Amino acid sequence: MALSTNKRVLSSSLTKRYKYDVFLSFRGEDTRNGFTSNLNGILRHNGINTFMDDKLQRGENISTELLEAIESSRISIIIFSKNYASSTWCLDELVKILECKNNGQVVLPAFYKVDPSDVRNQNGKFGEAFTKHEEKFKDNKKKMQRWRAALKEASNISGWHYKNDHHQSIGFIQEVFEEISRVKLNHTQVFVVKYLVGIDSRVEEISWHLDIESNDVHMKHLLEDVREKSRRLNGILQYKRQFIMRSLGGGN
Length: 252
Hints:
Blueprint lengths: L6 H7 L6 E6 L2 H4 L3 H11 L4 E3 L11 H8 L1 E8 L7 H14 L4 E7 L3 H6 L2 H13 L4 H15 L4 E3 L3 H22 L11 H12 L15 H5 L4 H13 L5
Parallel strand pairs: 1-2, 1-3, 3-4, 4-5
Helix pairs in contact: 3-9, 4-5, 5-8, 9-12
């Protein structure tokens, strides 16, 4: 799905310093060891600094550390999966993310094997989760209202809808990566130097990672005509797209 980022949000974000490029909000039991980990790995491999909540201890209330991570992120990706709303922690994350959106943060929802209308109207698994929450928080109707309003607002933001197909997964992660790259480039001055300084140290680092003399199997990708093609419009982005497709088994 093509996305258009609000120019006012981007311009207001330029003046703020961020600790993370991307904050990932997700339900661990649904996507931690699959889609979210794959997306996080691709983003980090391509120099995008992410915060993935995979080490913080969970409790009844959202932690101060997590709130600070959300506030210090340029972009938040909300990965709505079937059990997202069953977690009060995720719902509190969502409320905080949308507060930050009003202060200039870019928010991008990804609907992973769920229908956006179920998120918007709390149907299906989302409805079942809220039935339980209403019993538990029957004396705190304001909290319930905030959660419902947050789900409705987030579901109306332009994002991606992933259904259940391996080939779609490759394109899905690619689209997310490209949008994050565009947002990041809009915030960052890009300096292209005429001569490569310090290239020897980079070659040594690559050789160390490849460990050519070992008996292990390594994956290598050959990208041709780098100098010529990188001069074209979006040339670097096209190379990153090609690398991701090959890494995920999508060929050229």
